[in-house]
Design goal:
The complex is a heterodimer of chains A (about 230) and B (about 300). Chain A is of the alpha/beta class and about 230 residues long. The two termini of chain A are about 25 Å apart. In chain A, about 50% of the residues are buried. In chain A, the strands form three sheets. A seven-stranded mixed beta sheet of chain A has the order 2-1-3-4-12-11-10. In chain A, strands 5-6-9 form a three-stranded mixed beta sheet. Chain A has five helices and twelve strands. With about 300 residues, chain B is of the alpha/beta class. Chain B has 13 helices and nine strands. The longest helix of chain B has 18 residues. The chains are: A alpha/beta (about 230), B alpha/beta (about 300). Chains A and B meet through helix 1, helix 2 and strand 7 of A and strand 1, helix 1, helix 2 and helix 12 of B. Strand 7 of chain A pairs antiparallel with strand 1 of chain B.
Chain lengths: ~230, ~300
């Protein structure tokens, strides 16, 4: 059996925290600093950090095109905070987009400066009944979503802070700072489905996977993607 | 549903978002833009870089709030500013300005030789300097949400920074090897609260993010700090006292990301021009050393 590997962009930011959550759900996290680090991964996480800094490093090390190809090829991606900004098609008052795959407008530092950073519980029905505890640090907010974007979670005032479009999930907050494992489990489930599509779907090997056999079936991952129960956070 | 601002998780969390990055000292809005364009993850707004503070002598204080505001308006990355050790009113002013982090810094002239600021009383998070594990834990007990080893600021000489990061990590390794019933005495020896000492012994790491500061002036210096266990670096005089600040800044950012890849380090270190000249530590009188400020 080969354990699933999920890449975590490691230009700058809280990549170690994501790798720790992946470890808790039974997935090996791989630090991605160069295009060659993308080989053999089944999913990708764009972590929190400074989006301005990450965007410069992504371009400097030639990661923009290969990551865009992975996303377009259906590889599941999770972006948190700065990662959500990187995945948005339009950045309000901001730079040109990096991976313009989520059809939405995003506003950076939407709540203000660090003094306005906060924690709040919010409902994310896709992950089950138990609310998600969100840590929002100089967080962005989604100001408009296109028709194909599913809204996964909102604050009490209705502002959108978690979305999914096709193979891309993104949150304005940091599940990795709150010991929240359900987003990572969902990503791993999507990665497992992408690696090995079910009956009736054309079987398509991940183009970058090195190994031929032994598909992923690690125990803690991938059961119960709809959150019907059993997802105890650590 | 409850919403709570400025919690311990958000204070500590901002430092987590800065990890793997470079925080640069800047003295003008123009410098701040250069730093941001080079990939700095945050800037430290101050009137003079430490090398100039050292050269000028006299009392070094919090910067002019107007200057700090200009820098806050110039960039979208977080802006930090320095208050004197123990000067809680300077800290109140910086909080009122809305800076993202306060550095209670030995680079400024201390305002209190006995008491550091009670940082729990503030909504804005603090970073503090340390020379060893005990000092780091005392600052965390007072509410620091981020730690940096002090090094010797304004010298362009990495030797003290290396001494301090080795001391912190050596201290952590020593604690991790202690029996549980020895931790009470360890706390006494470290002059730090038992609860924090026990936590470090159990987890093998500090409870907050730790950067290295003081004397970093080349990409290789930044990578050395990272390989010794830093989670990011502060660069003060090293950038704007070099021949080509924008280029040096970019190179140090690249080196901090790729700290463990010597081929990339070689690549980014090429043709940077002269780094800051620097000072041999032995030529600095004890009274002129900044790292000994604070306890």
């Amino acid at each position: 059996m080969t354990a699933m590997k999920i890449g975590v962009l490691a230009m700058q930011g809280a990549f170690a925290e994501h790798i720790e959550i992946l470890r808790q759900v039974g997935v090996e996290g791989i630090q991605v600093r160069l295009p060659r680090d993308l080989a053999g991964i089944s999913g990708l996480i764009l972590p929190g950090g400074e989006s301005t800094t990450m965007r410069k490093l992504i371009d400097r090390w030639g990661l923009r095109e290969p990551i865009r190809r992975l996303i377009d090829g259906g590889t599941p991606v999770l972006g948190t905070c700065a990662g959500m900004i990187l995945l948005s098609r339009h950045i309000v008052d901001g730079d040109e987009p990096v991976f313009p795959v989520l059809d939405m407008d995003i506003k950076r530092n939407a709540f203000g400066r660090q003094l306005d950073s906060f924690e709040a519980d919010l409902a994310v029905p896709l992950l089950g009944e138990r609310p998600v505890h969100g840590v929002f640090i100089r967080a962005p907010v989604v100001e408009r979503v296109g028709a194909k974007v599913d809204v996964l979670g909102r604050l009490d005032d209705g502002r959108i802070v978690a979305v999914r479009e096709r193979n891309v999930i993104a949150t304005a907050f940091h599940p990795e700072l709150a010991g929240e494992t359900r987003f990572h489990r969902l990503l791993a489930t999507m990665a497992s489905d992408h690696d090995e599509p079910g009956e009736g779907t054309e079987r398509r090997h991940h183009p970058l996977r090195r190994d031929g056999g032994g598909r992923v079936s690690s125990e803690p991952v991938g059961r119960d993607a709809t959150g019907a129960g059993g997802w105890a956070a650590s | 549903m409850t919403t709570e601002t400025s919690t311990w998780a958000t204070k500590k969390g901002l430092a987590q978002m800065l990890k793997g990055g470079v925080i640069m000292d800047v003295v003008t809005a123009e410098h701040a833009k250069i730093a941001e364009d080079a990939g700095a993850c945050a800037v430290m707004a101050l009137e003079r870089v430490p090398a100039d503070i050292r050269a000028a002598g006299g009392v070094a204080r919090m910067s002019d709030p107007a200057l700090i505001e200009q820098i806050m308006q110039a960039v979208t990355i977080p802006v930090m500013a320095k208050a004197r050790i123990g000067h809680f009113v300077e800290a109140q002013i910086l909080e009122a300005l809305g800076v993202d982090y306060i550095d209670e810094s030995e680079v400024l002239t201390p305002a209190d030789e006995a008491f550091h600021i009670d940082k729990h009383q503030f909504k804005v998070p603090f970073v503090c300097g340390c020379r060893d594990l005990g000092e780091a834990l005392r600052r965390i007990a007072e509410g620091a949400a981020m730690i940096r080893t002090k090094g010797e600021a304004g010298t362009g000489n990495i030797v003290e920074a290396v001494r301090h990061i080795r001391a912190v990590h050596g201290g952590i390794r020593a604690l991790a090897s202690r029996r549980e019933d020895e931790l009470f005495t360890a706390a006494k020896d470290l002059q730090a609260p038992y609860e924090l000492v026990a936590e470090v012994a159990r987890t093998g790491k500090l409870p907050v993010v730790n950067f290295v500061a003081g004397g970093i002036s080349t990409p290789a210096d930044a990578a050395l700090a990272m390989q010794l266990g830093a989670e990011g670096v502060f660069v003060g005089s090293g950038i704007f006292k070099s021949d080509d600040p924008a280029r040096m800044a970019r190179a140090i950012v690249q080196a901090t990301t790729h700290f463990d890849d010597p081929r990339i380090l070689a690549e980014v270190s090429k043709g940077l021009g002269a780094p800051m000249r620097g000072i041999e530590l032995a030529t600095i009188a004890e009274a002129d050393r900044l790292a000994v400020r604070g306890w």
